[in-house]
Amino acid sequence: MKNLKIAFGSDHVGYELKPVIMEYVKSLGYEIYDFGTYSNKRTDYPIYGKKVGEEVAAGNYDLGIVICGTGVGISIAANKVPGIRAACVSDPYSAELSRRHNNSNILAFGSRVVGSELAKMIVKSWLAAEFEGGRHQRRIDELAAEDAHDSKKFDKIKNNITEI
Ligand code: RB5
Fold first, then answer.
1. Catalytic residue status for 68
2. CA–CA separation, 2 vs 95, rounded Å?
3. Which atom of ligand 1 lies closest to the CA of 74?
4. Known binder of ligand: residue 135?
5. Rounded Cα–Cα distance for residues 137 and 36 (Å)
6. Structural contact between residues 138 and 157, judged by C-beta atoms closer than 8 angstroms
């Protein structure tokens, strides 16, 4: 899974961990870009969650990685962008499953929760995993219907479940 472009973002609390993770991702062969913040001056995580979410949703970047104190705030912000499935995790297993089952396109974690070595393991597991499709695709389709505020489509998918 090389040649993928990964967008990064963090608030001031994630600012110090971000370059460590960016360098690691670069060393794995991915293209990286930093959408800020660019200093440890206090700022607001929604700015960077939104920006990275928009870049990924627009297809300018394949995936995104966002960091704040807990990963929670910045993942909530990213998830407000239609098409974004941001997973806030603090272990490699959840990171991997968020790709395989949820087709997560943004990974979020907290610099106050995980250390740099655990963060690298989380990122490695996430990048190595691939979406399994199959029954999981229907759930992604339901999420997409929600994104589109299309309740009819959501119900149609829900009412046509043949495989659990
Ligand atoms: C900033 O103090 C902190 O609230 C932020 O980094 C993040 O943890 C929010 O979810």
1. yes
2. 18
3. 10
4. yes
5. 32
6. yes
Residues 6 or more apart from 69 whose CB is under 8 A from it? Answer: 11, 13, 14, 110, 111, 112, 113
Check whether residue 123 and residue 137 sit in a common domain: no
Q: What is the CATH number of the domain that holds 96?
A: 3.40.1400.10
- Chain mean pLDDT for the chain: 96
**DSSP-derived secondary structure for 130-152:** ----THHHHHHHHHHHHHTT-HH
Count of beta carbons in the 10 Å neighbourhood of residue 78: 31
129: left (phi over 0), alpha (psi -120 to 50) or beta: beta
136 catalytic residue (yes or no): no
Question: 142 and 107 in one domain?
Answer: no
Q: Which domain holds residue 139?
A: 133-164
43 among annotated binding-site residues: no
- pLDDT tens-digit map of 62-99: 999 999 999 999 999 999 999 999 999 999 999 999 99
Does 152 share its domain with 78? no
Looking at the fold, whether 59 and 32 belong to one and the same domain comes out as yes
Q: Are 61 and 80 in contact (CB under 8 A)?
A: no
* Predicted TM-score of the model (pTM): 0.96
